[in-house]
């Protein structure tokens, strides 16, 4: 793996108008997504006053990634990517307006909201997969790290604004107004995406593809994945490292609420500190890659997080947790940008959707298992035991990582 390009090349990504439009549209989408992720569970609670109903909504929203990830990747490689993005964005806006109208009408049936949440996340993942493909088509190969950093910056900035968005939404007398606002934001994104000029790989419309060829296309993507050692290896390591990140994010919330008795709003503020770390990571990732190289940077983030988990285990106080969240946000931002950049660099543009679907599914496949196991660990022992286990897990993964071709590349 070659060192990253110069700072002049880093800044050049902003000069590419199609890429700038993609980032701005993505920023508006992230704001909308953050709003409806807050609003939908609150609407469910207003209707049922049941924590089970709220949890069920979150479960419905998590399923599409695992169920449809690979299929969506195949479809994205077969269709006009820009047109697909417009369909995904407009479909989400329509669903949001329908859910808002349903809530305002006083309909108490829960299944439309579960279905709506499921479809919103399905179309959301459909957009994200296409964004990966569009980034490959609009950014120069030397600018992929910078391009991914811009997307990460936009997403992380929204997470920093999370407490502000939450406070504004709580002021609404009718929570469904948040869905209307989200639909309007998606409408603005739709207009922006219509202006994106896509060059490079030209793909025919889905309706002219040979019937019954989805399996063939998937196998072709699978062959590309299997025949790319770097891509295959990084996917394996991300699978294991994602398990620790999702468990840490959940456990730290439980520990802060149950043990330290921190209020929900203050906890949101603390997590915005993690967002600040993420913003800093997205700004410095180019320099870090220049210094260490792409493969070593990915490995070092795993090592740093091992010390983060260990620090929280040894001294689980509020100041340490806030500092840990800042460092965690920084390393996760750098880790994510580098992994996405490596995936872009190792994948031909015509296979980007399928590789995004295949790797994305593997990235998340271990999360439900480790989350379930961590729940029992918290019940039998304590959250601090989980922090120790995460430190050991990350340390062991790092020891294997330094022996891999990613570290040597």
Summarize the structure.
The chain contains 17 helices and no strands.
Question: Can you offer a commentary on this structure?
Answer:
- By secondary structure, the protein is mainly α.
- It has 2 domains: 7-197, Up-down Bundle (Growth Hormone, Chain: A); 214-404, Up-down Bundle (Growth Hormone, Chain: A).
- It is 82% helix and 0% strand.
- The chain contains 17 helices and no strands.
- The chain has helices at 7-12, 17-48, 51-78, 81-104, 111-138, 144-160, 162-170, 177-194, 214-226, 229-258, 264-292, 294-314, 318-346, 352-364, 367-380, 383-401, 405-408.
- α11 packs antiparallel against α12 (294-314).
- The radius of gyration is 21 Å and the shape is globular.
- The chain starts with 6 loop residues before the first helix and ends with a helix.
- Mean pLDDT is 78; it is low at 1-15 and 200-211.
Give the ordered list of helices and strands: HHHHHHHHHHHHHHHHH
- Name of the CATH homologous superfamily of the largest domain: MFS general substrate transporter like domains
Tally of discrete structural domains? 2
Helix content: over 70%
- Terminal CA distance: 5 Å
| Mean pLDDT reading | 78
Strand content: under 5%
Q: What structural class do you assign from the helix and strand content?
A: mainly alpha
Give the strand tally. 0
Q: Low-confidence spans: pLDDT under 50, at least 5 residues?
A: 1-15, 200-211
What is the overall number of helices?
Answer: 17
Biggest sheet features = none
CATH top level assignment of the largest domain: Mainly Alpha
